[in-house]
Amino acid sequence: MNRLSNSLVAADVAAVLHPYTNARAHEQKGPLIIDRGEGVHVYDEAGKEYIEGLAGLWSVAVGFNEPRLVEAAVRQMQKLPFYHTFAHKSHEPSIRLAEKLVEMTPEGLDRVFFTSSGSEANDTVVKLVWFMNNALGRPQKKKFLARTKGYHGVTVASASLTGLPNNHRDFDLPAIPVRHLTCPHHYRFAHDGESESEFCARLIAETEQVILEEGPETIAAFIGEPLMAAGGVMPPPAGYWPGIEALCRKYDILLVADEVICGFGRLGSSFGAVHYGFTPDIMVLSKQISSSYMPLAAVVFTDEIYQAVADNTNKIGTFGHGFTASGHPVATAVALENLAIIEERHLVENARQMGDLLQVGLAPLADHPLVGEVRGAGLIAGLELVSDKATKKPFDPVGKIGALAAEAGQEEGLIFRAIGDTLALCPPLIVTEEHVHQIVQRMEATLNKTA
Ligand code: PLP
Predict the structure, then answer these.
(1) What CA–CA distance (Å, rounded) separates 376 from 363?
(2) For a tag on the chain, would you pick the N or C end, based on fewer CB atoms within 10 A?
(3) DSSP three-state, residue 307
(4) Is the pTM value of this prediction over 0.90?
(5) Cα separation of 220 and 223, whole Å?
(6) What is the pLDDT along the chain (451 residues), one digit of tens a residue?
(7) For residue 153, how far is its CA from the centre of ligand 1 (angstroms)?
(8) What stretches pass through the bilayer (predicted)?
């Protein structure tokens, strides 16, 4: 059957502008329509089975048909399907989830603000920090430090924090004050012959130089993903985060860990910050918080920030920020159940064990003629394809072979995400040894098909 004569495909092409999609190519190609999910698998309309090697969008920790999440949603829907948290109103699921997040996150993170998406959460971070610094009588302390290739979302402020050209090009973002520092990815950004520790020392020195150049009194916060994911799965060099943390403390700069992907066990530790040994002032959480069954995100922050903000709300009369769905009862009820499952089934420990297997299984693919680097941590991995292994020369144009590989992967029954020419894997936390072996086998078959 010609795919475009399928009525759902045709209706999609006729009506939908897709996120992160070349719209003209989509008109020719149409969507892959996913019909249902079960465990680590999803099934298309024709019934073909795929391992969801990216857990949807780095999201579905507990698998695609967890009945307990469905039941939690139905229970809450029947009791109170919606209520808000504005103007002194509240409801139990949002209170219990806030309590749970304070308990789970590292010591010192004691206050929670809910949003529906990671982008809204990062916009909230920007506004919270600005509001706080105005309250503290230091209105000049507003700049953010972020990283090239960092990903923090697509709303106007969060897209400004994001360090990827496609999120800026032709969108005329009003410049919020952000300096993007060098991406801490040794393979791509180290100088010739520079060791990982020399590279790390250079990045820390560069950060300090930028702080001094701009003036520490003008810099509000440093934001980063513990392991940069959506920009291409790039773990930091050893010592990077403790070095950044020390600079933040020295110059009174808030440290924000964007844990939207790393949080809740992805790296085989509770949080990315715990994995890399640093303590942020603010954590941004989403995706695996509810396995994305319901849209939800949270900003978790210190009591010190809270006290400054609270004083100012008293002066002004209100905290003029919040969303209709902040703390949505169904989303927070589902998240509570999801976090209970992660604990009961020891999924963080499973991520650590299966993650080790995945990294060991993928490592030999570095010898494949197409592959420049295999990298990752825990249950997240990236394979970067290059046209010349010795010089690391990328394919021209970047993204073409990645897209071909993603198609070949689908034929092999493995869905992953091509970020340029890096093939990203981030399977559900419930994967078993057998799934991991299948992922590795199918990735190898994919590379052979693409070569
Ligand atoms: N921050 C990080 C680290 C992310 O990976 C993402 C999305 O992938 C976001 C923020 C944005 O989240 P959302 O797509 O829910 O707005």
Answers:
(1) 10
(2) N
(3) helix
(4) yes
(5) 10
(6) 456 667 999 999 999 999 999 999 999 999 999 999 999 999 999 999 999 999 999 999 999 999 999 999 999 999 999 999 999 999 999 999 999 999 999 999 999 999 999 999 999 999 999 999 999 999 999 999 999 999 999 999 999 999 999 999 999 987 789 999 999 999 999 999 999 999 999 999 999 999 999 999 999 999 999 999 999 999 999 999 999 999 999 999 999 999 999 999 999 999 999 999 999 999 999 999 999 999 999 999 999 999 999 999 999 999 999 999 999 999 999 999 999 999 999 999 999 999 999 999 999 999 999 999 999 999 999 999 999 999 999 999 999 999 999 999 999 999 999 999 999 999 999 999 999 999 999 999 999 999 9
(7) 5
(8) none
The residues, ordered by sequence, that sit 6+ positions from 28 with a Cβ below 8 Å of its Cβ are: none
Q: Which residues pair with 52 in a beta bridge?
A: 415
Give the pocket of ligand 1 (CB within 6 Å).
117-119, 122, 151-153, 225, 229-230, 258, 260-261, 286
Q: Quick check: bond before 397 cis, omega within 30?
A: yes
Q: Which atom of ligand 1 is the closest one to the Cα of 150?
A: 3
Tell which one of 286, 292, 296 to mutate to probe ligand 1, the residue whose CB is within 8 A of the most ligand atoms.
286
- Evaluate whether the domain defined by 69-344 bears CATH number 3.40.640.10: yes
Domain with CATH 3.40.640.10 in the chain: 69-344
Residue nearest to atom 13 of ligand 1 (CA): 118
Taking the CA of residue 295 as reference, the ligand 1 atom at the shortest distance is: 15
- The topology under which CATH files domain 32-62+346-450 is Aspartate Aminotransferase, domain 1 (3.90.1150)
Asked if the interface predicted TM-score (ipTM) of this complex is over 0.85, the answer is yes
